[in-house]
Amino acid sequence: MGLKRIIGLLIFLGLATACLIYLRSKNTIPPRLRISTWSNYFPDSVIQDFTSKTGIKVELSYISSNEELFAKLKAGATGLDIVQPSDYMVRQMKSLSMLSKLDPTLLPNLIHLDDYYRHLSYDLKNEYSVPFTWGTSGIAVNTAKVQLNETEVSWELLLNSSYPRQTSLLDDMREVFSAVLFLNHLSPNTRDLDNLVKAKQQISQIKNHVLMFNSESKPLLLKEEVYIAHIFSSDAVQAQAENPAIRYFIPREGGLIWTDNFAIPVSSQHKLQAHTFINYFLSPEHALETVRQSHLATPNREVKDLLPLEEKNNPNIYPPKEVFKKLFFLEDIGDTLPLMNRMWTELKS
Amino acid sequence: MNTPLKSSKPIPLTALVFIGWLFLMTFIPFLIILGMSFLERTPLGTISFHLSFNNYLRSFQYIYIKVLLKTVWLALVATLSCLAIGFPVAYYLARSRGWLKQLGLVLLFIPFWTNFILRVYGLVSLLGNHGLINQLLLEWGLIKTPLEILYTRTGVYLGLLYNYLPFLVVPIFSSLEKLDPALREAGFDLGANRIQVFWKVVVPNIKEGVFVGSLFVFIPMLGEYVIPDLLGGAKEAFLGNVMVSQFFVMQDWPFGSAIAGMLSLLLLITLWIQTRWSRIGGFRNGIDNAKS
Fold first, then answer.
1. Nearest by Cα to A231 from A253, A208, A209, A247
2. Minimal CA separation from B74 to chain A, in Å
3. What does the mean pLDDT of chain A come to?
4. In chain A, domain spans
């Protein structure tokens, strides 16, 4: 039958692949630093600047969630030189030996980081990650539509909303559970099953009233489809810049704090250049532009000093001390996570 | 029916390339997924190479069966709605002539010039409280408060209907095209009225086209996950959403693969019913032919 042809085709394909591999190894393509980042993070001008100053070409690719980044790396995406996992994802990748150890001698600009961000629980000594930006999760409210007492904002406002059809929750399991746990005056990292089951029941009641689960509620706030949104601080500040009636609050019961970090995957072929990139963006003058455009908070003392006053003193970006004390990182909850996953699937089914 | 599949001619090279492509890009990835569904998740979210049937046992738990049944039900309702709207469209198109027919077909396919995701976002801006439809209805005083369509189940149905309708219309249209007009005329000549001609002449001849068209929309609807998220507000899940979240949120690839395996099985069963059904149909036609 066609067996000879099949064998012929296979041989042909094999030869073609061999040729390609040979040509590629011969062809000396200048090294390109491949960076996986969040969208709207690095303005083009900043990257062009980096290339003209260091001669290192950069190629950006984008992720929309930490889990997507994890999936990409795990599925064998090699060639990424820098990734930007958030705090809990650094912990997970670290424990799976997916990140390569950083060389502090190549990162002299680490000294500019605020002390607090050099000893975070997920990476105590910045061995595998360097925090680049941080932010919080709270509630954005369109104050032109919703009457509220601004000094006494509670998670109640979101979870027991008087405008349920104009309310959205983050489409994120840990975030939504944390909101309810805060309301119940519990730690967002609780492993107590009874408390979690109770939280799940509360969520299932809320779910039937609110408009939707959505992690990109900025456009909805601006279109006034949503008046009250569970939101990340950076999105809220960006929304406020376009509509001053939109205000951001960290509820009095407390809120979540998160960081986005630089890290180098073990598979990177250009670790030296990757360190150069990280160090470059730890230097105050180079980080400044990025931070200003995204309205994210910087862990870099010097950068913060260089920021314009209205940015530096914006309590929505840099919460005052008494609020900061009530911010928590999401910690690893171990065996409780699969149980929570199951509850979340039940909630959504 | 019994055309021998084994042909003495060798498979042409052009077909081999296509078969090779399908093998490499469809069959092998499917095998990988199938293989992964028999492995286990480690506490850290990676895959451990340890043979286990737990994933399949787990997928028979109440919540997943509930999602499965709900998905089948929603897809069925949406398919029947597609049929109710799509059949008259196909019928009309097949019977019209000249530029009207051309225009109808072009209009049917114009939406495909735009990416699927963009079309769904287009619906979002049409259906919202501040969307075009609600604003017009409010303006004309037909309603006092905006209709709640977006982020409800109605929104999901509308999205499914809009996106899948052409896939149903085309097979029905082409089987209607093939229907010899003389058959219909003969029906009338023999004294049948319009309704009788429709049910006794038209429908028996195109039922396979209707069935194939319905499958064309029913099967992809079973795996749908974008529309429930974007138009339903992510408040309830299709099986597709549960599957995708196992990969990208829960980091349980083996279980996600098991759900994918179940879904594939469901699709195979549907296809099997279809081939069986058409074979029976073919058999009956044979008897009818022999009688006449």
1. A247
2. 13
3. 89
4. 32-133+259-317, 135-257+328-348
Looking at the 3D structure of chain B, how many domains does it have? 1
CA distance B63 to chain A (A): 6
Q: Do B16 and A67 touch (CB under 8 A)?
A: no
Judging contacts by C-beta atoms under 8 Å, the chain B residues touching residue A2 are 10-11, 16
The CATH architecture of the domain made up of A135-257+328-348 is 3-Layer(aba) Sandwich (3.40)
Q: Which DSSP helix (H) or strand (E) runs through B181? A: helix B181-189
CATH number for the domain spanning B84: value is: 1.10.3720.10
Position of tokens 């060389």?
A103
Distance from the A215 Cα atom to the nearest Cα atom in chain B, whole angstroms = 10
B171: containing domain: 57-286
Q: Which of A15-19, B123-127, B256-260 has the lowest mean pLDDT?
A: A15-19
The residues that bridge with A229 in the sheet, in sequence order, are A140, A168
| Contact partners, residue B213, CB within 8 Å, separation at least 6 | B83, B86, B167, B168, B169, B170, B171, B172
pLDDT digits (tens, 9 = 90+) for B248-258: 888 889 999 99
Nearest-by-CA chain A residue for B7: A1
Give the span between the Cα atoms of B25 and A99, in whole angstroms. 30
Residues 6+ apart with CB under 8 A from A175: A137, A230, A256
Across the interface, whether the CB atoms of B44 and A95 are under 8 A apart is answered yes
Return the residue of B nearest to A73 by Cα.
Answer: B46
CATH fit for domain A32-133+259-317, picks 3.90.550.10, 3.40.190.10, 3.40.50.150, 3.40.50.720: 3.40.190.10
pLDDT of residue B282: 54
B20 assigned to some structural domain: no
Over range B18-44, report the average pLDDT.
Answer: 91
pTM score: 0.84
B239: in domain: yes
CA distance A309 to A253: 28
Residue B1 is predicted with a pLDDT of 44
Token pair, residue B241, equals 């959403």
Which residue numbers of A have CB closer than 8 Å to B's CBs? 1-2, 5-6, 9, 13, 65, 67-68, 70-71, 74, 92, 95-96, 165, 168, 171, 173, 207, 211-214, 223-225, 334-335, 338, 341-342, 345-346, 348-349
For residue A312, the distance in angstroms to the closest alpha carbon of chain B comes to 34
B95: which 2 tokens? 């019977």
Kindly tell me if the per-residue pLDDT of B128 is higher than 60.
yes
Question: From the list B233, B247, B248, which residue is nearest A213 (CB)?
Answer: B233
Structure tokens belonging to residue A267: 């598979």
Tell me, yes or no, whether B46 lies in a domain: no
Contact B234 A212 (CB under 8 A): yes
CA distance B64 to chain A (A): 8
Q: Are strands A228-232 and A246-249 parallel, antiparallel or unpaired?
A: unpaired
Q: Give the count of Cβ contacts less than 8 A between chain A and B.
A: 84
CB spacing of B237 vs A74 below 8 angstroms = no
Q: B217: helix, coil or strand?
A: helix
Q: In the predicted model, is pLDDT for residue A24 greater than 80? A: no
Please give the mean pLDDT across all residues of chain B: 87
Query: What ipTM was predicted for this assembly?
Result: 0.79
Distance between CA B164 and CA A303 in Å, rounded?
52
Q: With contact defined as beta carbons under 8 Å apart, do B151 and B233 qualify?
A: yes
- Distance separating alpha carbons of residues A30 and A55, to the nearest angstrom: 10
Domains A32-133+259-317 and A135-257+328-348 share a fold: yes
